[in-house]
User: Which sequence fits this backbone?
DNA sequence: AAATCCCCCAACCGCAGACAT
DNA sequence: CATGTCTGCGGTTGGGGGATT
């Protein structure tokens, strides 16, 4: 037995070695190229998981934990190395404001990045900010834990307390928001889930206008915004990130929000914007694969989504857009107001389409385009929006009652993309909802509630990463034989899921996700639940920044996408 | 040129959850 | 049900190296 942690037995008095129970001296410290090769070969042949078997089967003098860490952080395919981009930095800030020190979840939103990288990035800058006495977040970002202190905080990790309190010292709470003390200033997943709002709130002090950018947010502006208001009353002044490296000016890489000069000195703008990034999205490889096949320059970061979260009335969530984040090349979001006080969004194909006065925040453009009338928010719906999801959840669901209600342009730019994102997220949300209804709880997702997609002949036990939503051995995987099942669902959950409907949905999902080549498109050999994201950067690199390629999509693909449909009728608690 | 500071990064550690026995 | 094992997550440490003094 390999001993871990404090139980490790120091061998030979060397701090760089330890011994397992069998007397094998396990090495510590930096990995050599030879060790990397051994591990890489082993994992490619046997899949991930069963890390302790690496030492047993290869003789590699590393403990399982070390092997796993090395693979995850350095050897697995498609890791992004190098500095974080501005978009990534921005996203990290957003995510941290919302999630706190949930590095793994943050990493799930940053394809190719590891939790360790993000953690190091944050902590490094934290130190600098501490020294400089600067706030952790841009002045107008109120972290969720500031906005919504939760009395029922479930402290999953006792380590969080110290760290979060520590950070809290440097966070400058905004006066307009209560700063209710709690055991931890950071939201636990439970707290976030219990929070109906997934919006950030930006405060300045000069206007009373509340920008409701999340149509389902309970932070509905008391005064419905007219298109002119929305377009002429842009958000607060440009902010830059305190997390940017000092090497790049003070905060050069994070122009989080760029506002018209007329607004810069306007201190009273108070608005919210939607839950920044989708915490989980369909497997990036699935999405990217499809886009790759179609050569479609769709950018998935902005998508029309509908959240069938209970108690959302099924009739009332026809659609809405969540705007996770955007890159400079990303499509930009357009804020729509419908006739019923629940605004929606559409996407402009290119940032250049924006007037400079409403150019930022890039993920929060509020320019009106009134032709999005198909987005029908019924009056006075009851919305409940999960704010954080167990890691296998996908917050964004799109249900399109009638795709024909979109304009051609919107269809071209958005529909396929959004609909592609539906199936996986749909299922996940169904599962999540069902589990929630069944009394599920906890920060970690129940392994049993996860779908598993694995090669049918994949019998080895090495691929037992139980947290994988899709567990795929990247060498052995054959997407044409992909199986996605609910085999791991608890019976109770199955009962609550109305399997007939679910099977239909799953079948559609499979059809959706298996119509092309390899699933492990280099994104990751294993699609963990936390990897259920779209590799935005991959897409951006694959496609031009504008929408031209989107228009090249074939009718077949359009039709296929239109086939994606999900029925919620039989889902308990969803409608 | 040397000392110091600071950033970056890899890796380790402890803990807790899930699962197996 | 209890115990052991595996795994993942978050906190922490320490070394390398560049920048600054």
Assistant:
């Amino acid at each position: 037995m390999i001993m871990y942690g404090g139980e490790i037995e120091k061998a030979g008095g060397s701090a760089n070695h330890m011994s397992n129970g069998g007397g094998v001296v396990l090495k510590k410290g930096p990995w050599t190229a030879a060790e990397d090769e051994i591990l890489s070969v082993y994992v490619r042949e046997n899949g991930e998981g069963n890390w302790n078997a690496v030492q047993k089967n290869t003789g590699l003098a590393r403990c399982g934990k070390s092997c796993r860490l090395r693979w995850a952080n350095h050897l697995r395919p498609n890791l992004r190395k190098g500095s974080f981009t501005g978009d990534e930095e921005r996203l990290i800030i957003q995510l941290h404001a919302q999630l706190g020190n949930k590095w793994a979840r943050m990493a799930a939103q940053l394809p190719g990045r590891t939790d360790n990288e993000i953690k190091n990035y944050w902590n490094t800058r934290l130190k600098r900010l501490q020294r400089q006495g600067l706030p952790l977040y841009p002045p107008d970002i109120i972290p969720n834990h500031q906005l919504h202190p939760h009395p029922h905080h479930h402290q999953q990790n006792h380590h969080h307390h110290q760290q979060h309190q520590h950070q809290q010292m440097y966070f400058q709470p905004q006066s307009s928001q209560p700063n209710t003390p709690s055991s931890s200033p950071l939201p636990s997943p439970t707290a976030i889930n219990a929070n109906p709002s997934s919006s950030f709130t930006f405060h300045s002090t000069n206007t009373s206008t509340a920008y409701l950018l999340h149509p389902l947010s309970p932070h509905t502006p008391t005064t419905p915004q007219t298109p002119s208001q929305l377009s002429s009353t842009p958000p607060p002044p440009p902010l830059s990130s305190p997390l940017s490296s000092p090497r790049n000016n003070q905060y050069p890489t994070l122009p989080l929000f760029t506002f018209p000069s007329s607004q810069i000195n306007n201190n009273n703008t108070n608005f919210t914007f939607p839950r920044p990034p989708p915490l989980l999205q369909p497997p990036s490889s699935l999405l990217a694969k499809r886009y790759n096949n179609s050569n479609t320059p769709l950018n998935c970061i902005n998508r029309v989504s509908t959240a069938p979260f209970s108690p959302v009335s099924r009739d009332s969530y026809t659609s809405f857009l969540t705007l996770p984040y955007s890159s400079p090349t990303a499509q930009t979001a357009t804020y729509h107001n419908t006739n019923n006080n629940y605004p929606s969004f559409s996407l402009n194909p290119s940032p250049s389409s924006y007037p400079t006065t409403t150019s930022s925040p890039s993920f929060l453009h509020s320019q009106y385009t009134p032709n999005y009338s198909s987005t029908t928010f019924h009056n006075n719906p009851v919305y409940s929006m999960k704010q954080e999801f167990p890691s296998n959840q996908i917050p964004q669901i799109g249900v399109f009652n009638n795709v024909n209600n979109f304009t051609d342009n919107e269809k071209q730019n958005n529909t396929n993309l959004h609909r592609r994102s539906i199936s996986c997220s749909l299922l996940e949300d169904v599962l999540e909802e069902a589990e929630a209804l069944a009394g599920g709880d906890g920060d970690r997702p129940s392994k049993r509630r996860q779908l598993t997609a694995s090669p049918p002949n994949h019998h080895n036990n090495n691929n037992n990463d139980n947290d994988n939503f899709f567990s795929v051995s990247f060498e052995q995987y054959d997407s044409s034989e992909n199986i996605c099942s609910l085999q791991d669902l608890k019976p109770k959950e199955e009962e609550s899921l109305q399997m007939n409907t679910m099977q239909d949905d799953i079948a559609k999902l499979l059809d959706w996700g298996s119509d092309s080549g390899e699933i492990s498109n280099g994104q990751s050999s294993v699609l963990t639940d936390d990897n259920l994201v779209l590799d935005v950067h991959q897409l951006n690199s694959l496609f031009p920044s504008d929408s031209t390629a989107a228009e090249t999509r074939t009718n077949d693909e359009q039709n296929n996408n239109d086939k994606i449909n999900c029925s919620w009728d039989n889902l308990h608690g969803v409608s």
Chain A has two domains: 5-75, 82-575.
